[in-house]
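pinging the channel bc i need a second pair of eyes. not urgent but kinda urgent?? the chain im working w is below, pasted from the shared doc
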Amino acid sequence: MTVHGTTEPELDISEVTSYAEGLDHPEGVTVTAEGVVYAGGEAGQVYRIDNGTASQVASTGGFLLGLCADASGVLYCCDVARREVVRVDPSTHDVAVYSAGTDDRPMVNPNWPVFDPAGNLYVTDSGTWNGDDGCVFRVRPDGVTEIWSTACTGFPNGACLSTDGRTLFVLESQTPALVAITIDDSGAAGGRRVIADLPNTVPDGVTLAADGAMLVCCYRPDRILRVRPDGVVTVVADDPLGTTLSAPTNGVWVGANLDVLVTGNLGRWHLSQLKPGGTGVPLHYPEMP
């Protein structure tokens, strides 16, 4: 059973500041193995962030949600308008289709991609709002796509892997809840287990901290939550005005010590940054063909 802790925010909203300005309603944000931060825009823009300045390095022509990077810094972006995961090389500006789902089940709303160490890409497909028809795809390193799990149907959204790689944590925006899907020795999906119910929110993005807690960015309200391993939920930061945090959809740990959380703000034109305490878990950056 979920235990909700204090609703008083751990941080004052003044402790949340701008990380970069001039983006087009950024939802997804990620960091490469070299520490370069990228974000997406609602017209398919791919932005590179350098010293607080956002510069467009490519465009998919669609609407970017989540994104992640491989060992070479190539990006894998969920494009909801194209209904595809696209592979974007920031150095050449090339954009290519990486996956559009399977023949029997094309992608409808590809939302968030997560690499494991072997190069398997887990992709949440949210399906349709009120449709209870979401799923999780897995794209193997050779590009073969399969339906990995149909256990999460309530608009599966942000996701992250456990430190041992044996669990995929997924936010269900419409349930709303943070859930876990086990990964067995063969790589197959196990059952769905609720980590925490998140009533009166629309949870969107989740990142893992080194202490096992998960930081949840909420599309509604404009809030960041902490879900401890024991299921206790607390508020890290809250913005009643929705200006500093404005539909903070996804977050990523950055900095030399991975102690800064950078979030997208789908409702505005900037990325935010805060120090929620503790450090993050590094993402996986596989060598890809």
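so The chain has a mean pLDDT of 97. and The chain has no helices and 25 strands. — does that match what u expected or am i reading it wrong
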